[in-house]
Amino acid sequence: MKLFSTKSLLMILTAAGLLFTSSSAFGQRRDRLPNGTPEQIQAVVNMMNSLSVFTAAVAEARAGLATATFAEVKDEAVIRQRAEALREAEIALAMARGEAFARVQADPATRLTPEQIASLIRNEGEIRI
Known about the structure:
The protein is an all-alpha fold. It has helices spanning about 5-20, 40-50, 50-70, 75-105, 115-120.
């Protein structure tokens, strides 16, 4: 007995991949910025918001790779192409995140402490407000 068609299964797996890339998937909690001033918190929120295009591109590339991986007929060329697209999207996100973080650190009013930076790293660059 076949429970799902291949097409249905691909749609389910793609949707699951998109959920897992979301920071709020399944109630995953982010930490608050430890001892953050209002200026620091706003700067980090602005930084996170400025990266939304890049994080969306990573999620889309990850979903594309999942779709290629679970295709009915394995096509190594497509899998490699989608993996390369994900790599490029991750690099673009990392570079943009580094530039945005440098702007936060350049301002004495928003400069983060080592403890706050460690919290950002633990939470993949996001905080809970």
